[in-house]
């Protein structure tokens, strides 16, 4: 438990300074179903019906079991996913998952190039227009690929599955250079984007994951509805399933603005 | 997306009227592991390691799969769990899962009687001391049983599993009378408690579930750390995994106060 004052201060100062608070909740989460997008080698989501109907005792009853990889659908990569001895998903401090959000829209470039790498220039252009990324921000990248979800062919670049499909993955991601600049020059809590991985589809060394997670910065992947967010002026609340020792987990992520 | 003004108004009015904002985040969630408490007939949580160590490519990598019943550990019962055609877990409006919290502590009575039913009198006593339960509240009940988690013998009344163990379940719950009074006389968003079920262990007709869920009121079960909350003056944010058509789901629930 730590102090959690930023949200209060932002809201108060928003009112004092007359900034518009629209006060809407936006769900940035895709539903989990058999259509959910998973890494080509990962175990997909399966729901198994246990009960659905009237019981002998007279009341209606519905219940299911499910199985899934930690990393699929809208989920969090905990730092330990790519960095030994760093936070497991249950160890990530809650204050790192709640805070001021900024959205960096690179969709114009990324939709023209499925191998697009979000660059340091993209970050600097955003700051020229919006001011410096605030301390303790959660930084969300809109590549535009969210609109293809759950069409694997368009969203991942391939509808094939298995190890042989890895080389067919084509979707945008955050360049290692931009990730390292964010870590070294801005104080960020977490990053997220509307693709299946914070590293682009053609990555083989996952250098962006390694750079972020070595610094205990988690990543939110397959984030939904980013086109509904403004560039600044919203709060993010990202609450993952609390799996003991988990390298990641299904995530419910919302924005309030 | 709907208007979400209550949290803003509460925070602003708290400042204007000088109420103390402590501004702490409290995690009301138990971790999921093989120790997690599940209904005696439910499929328990299992984590299966997929990778944990240095890859041939040189980077560290950890990943797991898991399987579970929807209803186990800290979870939500969606209305459809006991009420046909009511909200599935993905259909519950987010604004019903975020809002003013109140805590009703019945632990003194419940710890003396594992079959304790939270009564209408308990609600009225709380209101005598704290004022009327505010409109749009999330009502949390502290039975004191949270401190026994995950010891099944103490928490559920039995460490046996399977259909034969159902009659051995002894833990407190909310009486149907109190649930119906809440629905008919107070406008509540959701209820929660620190036992395995909103109906007490000896229930056979699950009348409290039926009463709540017929009115589209969800329930949070196996909630943790309720002893850390005051009676009033906090916000609850309860974000379940967004399972399409789910009758419930693992829940990450926090309080801010």
TrEMBL record, chains A, B:
GO terms for molecular function: arylformamidase activity. It comes from Christiangramia lutea. InterPro entries: KFase/CYL (IPR007325), KFase_sf (IPR037175). GO terms for biological process: L-tryptophan catabolic process to kynurenine. Pfam families: Cyclase. This is Cyclase family protein.
């Amino acid at each position: 438990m730590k102090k959690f004052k930023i949200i209060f201060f932002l809201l108060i100062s928003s009112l004092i300074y007359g900034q518009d608070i629209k006060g809407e909740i936006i769900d940035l989460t895709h539903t989990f179903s058999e259509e959910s997008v998973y890494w080509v080698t990962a175990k997909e989501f399966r729901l198994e019906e246990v009960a659905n109907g009237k019981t002998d005792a007279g009341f209606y009853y519905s219940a299911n079991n499910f199985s899934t990889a930690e990393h699929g659908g809208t989920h969090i990569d905990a730092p330990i996913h790519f960095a030994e001895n760093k936070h497991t998903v249950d160890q990530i401090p809650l204050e790192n998952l709640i805070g001021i959000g900024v959205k960096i829209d690179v969709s114009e470039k990324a939709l023209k190039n499925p191998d697009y790498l979000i660059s340091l220039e993209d970050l600097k252009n955003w700051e020229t227009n919006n001011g410096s990324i605030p301390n303790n921000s959660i930084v969300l990248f809109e590549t535009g690929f969210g609109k293809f979800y759950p069409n694997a062919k368009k969203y991942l670049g391939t509808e094939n599955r298995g190890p042989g499909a890895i080389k067919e993955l084509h979707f945008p991601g955050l360049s290692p250079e931009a990730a390292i600049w964010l870590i070294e020059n801005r104080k960020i809590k977490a990053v997220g984007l509307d693709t299946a991985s914070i590293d682009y589809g053609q990555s083989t060394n996952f250098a962006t994951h390694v750079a972020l997670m070595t610094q205990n910065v988690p990543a939110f992947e397959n984030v939904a509805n980013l086109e509904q967010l403004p560039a600044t002026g919203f709060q993010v609340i990202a609450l993952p399933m609390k799996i003991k020792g988990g390298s990641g987990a299904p995530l419910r992520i919302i924005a309030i603005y």
